[in-house]
Amino acid sequence: MNQTKGKRPHLLQVVIILAIILGLGSIIYVPKLLQNTPPQTRILQSTPECELTQSFCEARDNLSAISLKINNQAISAATPLTFEVKLENIAADQVMLDLKGRDMFMGLNQVMLSKVAGQDDLWQGEVVLGVCTTGKMTWVTSVITEHQGRLTQADFFFDAQ
Hints:
This protein is α+β, with helices and mostly antiparallel strands. It has one helix at 2-35, and strands at residues 41-46, 57-60, 65-70, 80-88, 94-101, 110-112, 114-115, 122-128, 137-147, 150-160. The protein has a ten-stranded mixed β-sheet with strand order 6-5-9-10-1-2-3-4-8-7, with no helix packed on it. The longest helix is centred in the first third of the chain and has 34 residues, at 2-35. The radius of gyration is 27 Å and the shape is elongated. It starts with a helix and ends with a strand.
């Protein structure tokens, strides 16, 4: 009986030491885990009812803007379309277009754009839209920029036959 009384204070000390170690470990490692969260995406609001084949359409916030234009007279499926993106006060290491059908899944259609030589904030690339069996299709084009892990996105809408 006297042997169990002597072990209880020792067991209590071990439990206290383990609690301290777990507490210190969480203080050290939780901030590191929080740093590995995915980057936040800044969303810019685009101008509604803008005709992408006529001029650059713009999405902006108070400080910066993303503009998009399609350099074709008409937008149709299965035809190469040249997209141009202008950036205003946005640093970018990469610019990508992500095209999706608004009302119907049309497969994965993502294109990395290339920086236009001699133009600091102008990017360009070619896209071919999938054919929709219903005739007219509304597309959502997300322009996504990346700089040092930070993302900026603007969505533009257009119709194709």
